[in-house]
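request received
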Amino acid sequence: NAGVTQTPKFQVLKTGQSMTLQCAQDMNHNSMYWYRQDPGMGLRLIYYSASEGTTDKGEVPNGYNVSRLNKREFSLRLESAAPSQTSVYFCASFRGRVGNEQFFGPGTRLTVL
Amino acid sequence: KQEVTQIPAALSVPEGENLVLNCSFTDSAIYNLQWFRQDPGKGLTSLLLIQSSQREQTSGRLNASLDKSSGRSTLYIAASQPGDSATYLCAVQNDYKLSFGAGTTVTVRA
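response:
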């Protein structure tokens, strides 16, 4: 039982390049999330998928797109990376009912030059 | 919009002292509150989850209280150890979303 996995662990991009961050969970959770973490600002929600087939914007969606590929997988795409998107990105999953915990992946450290 | 505040931002204590970490939130219509630990360069580890109907939750040396009406939670760590050094994050759940505080960075001196 691997929990929540993310790939890659590290990535360096040049401004304007695109990339996709991958996330998978093996806990049969309904809901999945993408957050970014910047120094001194806690975690901020980018996008989430409450259930398979649905996606919704979070607090900071601009410059990102997501795809809920199936119940296990939720990807985050940067179409044209900008230095402001340098951050640590975390994926999380949640069973979707009240009283359940969110579980987090190990993170992807992205630098945009 | 839910706002979550954690005070203090940093805390340094000698080994053996009890730790008290505070979290406040502006919208009391929460489903639950979760405390996480984050080590430098690592992901988040869930410590405790308190449902909105509960007043407190305990796990080993950790105890978390919740006063939903006043928008406050406190995490107590008894008899601190150097291994407790980390950043502690508070998060509140409204509907399907978690809102996070910026965290309290704890250093326990041997």
